[in-house]
Amino acid sequence: MSPMLEVSDLTVAYGKIAAVKGISFAVEEGQVVTLIGTNGAGKTTTLRTISGLIRPESGSISFQGKRIDDVPAHEIVSLGLAQSPEGRRIFPRMSVEENLHLGAFARNDHKAVAEDLEEAFELFPILRERRKQPAGTFSGGEQQMLAMGRAMMSRPKLLMLDEPSMGLSPLMMQKIMKTVRTLQRRGTTILLVEQNAQAALKLADWGYVLEVGSIVLDGPGRELMTNDAVRKAYLGED
Ligand code: ATP
């Protein structure tokens, strides 16, 4: 069987400068796969290209056996592929609940949407407590939960998370990582982009290391954690 997501020889450029240079990777159904790399490695560019927000220079992206590299972004969401963006991008003046409902914009199965809203509230009780509050009053960690909740509201088969740990306290980060695991258990496949290599690799079935636009290493998450080059470059060890 082909992988759920297959990226082949993908090149993405801003003007003349290639930010992603011919990368290939795959995400198998049911897995948590992580892309790790330092600032500017091309992680966000890769996710935004998969989401259809940027068009690639060359290469292909297939989701469940179908080419999606020329499919409009909103249709990609409808196919079951959602992204929780870096920097959250919630709508600050809208209420928490309104933000969550936006995640379900492409759906008309109202009963299932209500169930998914309940599930988001179960995973993140703070969202229920403050459902009527403007989202802009939330702390960074709370906004991250809201962004994840919103991405889940499209009932994705594959959820892509862009640096969910950014700016969070270690405790909050643990909570987010635990939620990633819970989502996996509930049947969601996850592509996790992280600068925090330690947290991401611990969780990941498979990891890819991205350096200035190229994949330089890949392997099972826990194996990469013990890899000397990864430890030196990403885990702050000598
Ligand atoms: P970070 O963790 O800092 O977000 P990243 O791995 O996600 O880094 P990208 O944001 O994908 O990296 O950036 C990859 C490269 O592309 C960088 O050199 C960046 O400066 C460049 N880049 C990103 N967005 C644009 C843009 N809109 N226009 C021009 N160059 C860009």
From TrEMBL:
Q: Give GO BP annotations, semicolon-separated.
A: L-amino acid transport
A Pfam family found in this protein is ABC_tran
Does the keyword Transport feature in the UniProt annotation?
yes
Tell me the ranges covered by the ABC transporter domain, including all copies.
Answer: 5-237
Q: GO terms for molecular function, please?
A: ATP binding; ATP hydrolysis activity; branched-chain amino acid transmembrane transporter activity
Task: Name the PROSITE patterns for this protein.
Answer: ABC_TRANSPORTER_1, ABC_TRANSPORTER_2
> Where would one find the signal peptide in this protein?
none
Taxonomy, superkingdom: Bacteria
Q: InterPro entries this protein is in?
A: AAA+_ATPase, ABC_branched_ATPase_LivF/BraG, ABC_transporter-like_ATP-bd, ABC_transporter-like_CS, BCAA_Transport_ATP-bd_LivF, P-loop_NTPase
What are the UniProt keywords, alphabetically?
Amino-acid transport, ATP-binding, Nucleotide-binding, Transport
Provide the family line.
Belongs to the ABC transporter superfamily.
Q: Which PANTHER family match?
A: BRANCHED-CHAIN AMINO ACID TRANSPORT SYSTEM,ATP-BINDING PROTEIN (PTHR43820:SF3), HIGH-AFFINITY BRANCHED-CHAIN AMINO ACID TRANSPORT ATP-BINDING PROTEIN LIVF (PTHR43820)
Specify the protein name: Branched-chain amino acid transport system ATP-binding protein
